[in-house]
Structures are given as C-alpha cells and as structure tokens.
Design goal:
It contains five helices and no strands. The chain is an all-alpha fold.
C-alpha cells in the first residue's frame, strides 16, 4: 500500500474522532459518510488479500443505524403536539434528532475502530 492510503486511513480516523467528541453538523456527518464510502470502494478495488477485503466490507455505513427515535416517542409527539399546539412536538422532534445524532456517533466510533484495525492489518502485510 502506498503512503497516501495510510495517510487517508489516518485522516478518516482523525475525522471520526472529531465527530465523536464535537457536536457534528448534518453536513459534517454527510461528508464523513461520503469519504467513508469512497475509501471503502477504493480499498476493495485496489487490495488483493481476501481478509483485508472482508474487513473493509465489514466497515458500516454511518447512516446504517436503527432509528429508535421514531417509535413510541412519535406517538407521544403527536398526542402532546395536539394538546400543547406544537410546542411539545418541536421538543420531541429535537429529542429524536439528538438521539439519532448519538446513534450516528456510535456508528462513527465503530467505523473509526475498523479503520484502525485495517491500518494494522495493512502494515503487517508490508
């Protein structure tokens, strides 16, 4: 592997670390997700070792999270929105957004760990 691939793997780990620690914007998450998908495609097309390809394929998409924020709270949002003329709806909508961001952060943490393992595997094959 070229040094630029290792630099990109380090870069995606650093970006993941920032998104985990900070409060990311939707644009930041989308940009990271796109970088993740492009990196996976590049690695799959340029690596010959089956175990490396399998590991790359196990790196999840950032948005592949269970959206548990749309279950019972949605019912409560509707009920309370009617009673309080939308104020509660906005509050629960905000809570659902915060929950989803936290789920995405957890997924980003998994992605970061997968790239750290990938970096180790690639370096051990050199």
């Amino acid at each position: 592997m070229t040094s630029s691939v290792f630099r990109q793997i380090k870069d995606i780990q650093n970006q993941a670390g920032k998104l985990i620690v900070e409060t990311p914007s939707t644009e930041d998450i989308e940009s990271f997700s796109q970088f993740n998908e492009e990196m996976k495609l590049y690695l799959i097309s340029h690596v010959d070792q089956p175990e490396i390809i399998q590991h790359v394929q196990s790196i999840p998409n950032v948005f592949d999270v269970e959206d548990e924020a749309n279950g019972l709270p949605e019912f409560l949002m509707i009920l309370l929105a009617i009673v309080t003329i939308g104020i509660s709806h906005l509050y629960f909508q905000h809570l659902a957004h915060v929950r989803r961001i936290n789920l995405i952060r957890d997924q980003i943490h998994v992605v970061k760990g997968k790239y750290a393992t990938l970096e180790f595997l690639l370096k051990s094959m050199e």
